[in-house]
Amino acid sequence: MFRNKIIVAGSGGQGALRVGQMIAYAALNEDLEATWLPSYGAEMRGGTANCSVIITDGEIGYPMLSMADYCIIMNDASLEKFEKSVYPGGTLILDSSMVSRPVGRKDLRTFYVPADKIAEEEGNPRGANMVLLGAYVAAAGSVSLEAVYTNIDHSFTGSKAKYAESNKRLVKRGYDLIAAQPQE
């Protein structure tokens, strides 16, 4: 049975919860089972924000998790809190534009992604989370780019529709960055 346990963590306003939600919806688009559980700090913007996602082709008996296969980290505080929550042999994906210290563990597959820098280059400074989403898709292989793109089209409608194509480009940049690296 296939199962991915994912933690996405950052500060409020960085889009950590959106990334987790996008992963869960992409899994549902691919006929997988998914849960998404958000957790907020005292304040939304600037406070801590993280979520846990489980995707599987089986049943989800318990939606909470204390350990993850994949962890997407958007800042130093999140690395400090969640580095120990990844199973040995698991994967860390970090925004190297925002995380200032290296990962201390040697038993993890780690990808340093300059997500903020890439988002700035693309003219979408709030899109670093989409770069990290693409990096996860490439590293995990559990959902397809097409499922993520479908979700973007459904999420960015009305006055936000103008951001859909930019966000797809950012997802693709993150995906390509990881896909180009040797996989262990």
TrEMBL record:
GO molecular function, a single term: oxidoreductase activity, acting on the aldehyde or oxo group of donors
SUPFAM superfamilies: Pyruvate-ferredoxin oxidoreductase, PFOR, domain III
Residue span(s) of domain Pyruvate/ketoisovalerate oxidoreductase catalytic: 12-176
Listed Gene3D superfamilies: Pyruvate-ferredoxin oxidoreductase, PFOR, domain III
Keyword presence, Oxidoreductase: yes
This protein's UniProt keywords: Oxidoreductase
The name this protein goes by in its record: 2-oxoglutarate ferredoxin oxidoreductase subunit gamma
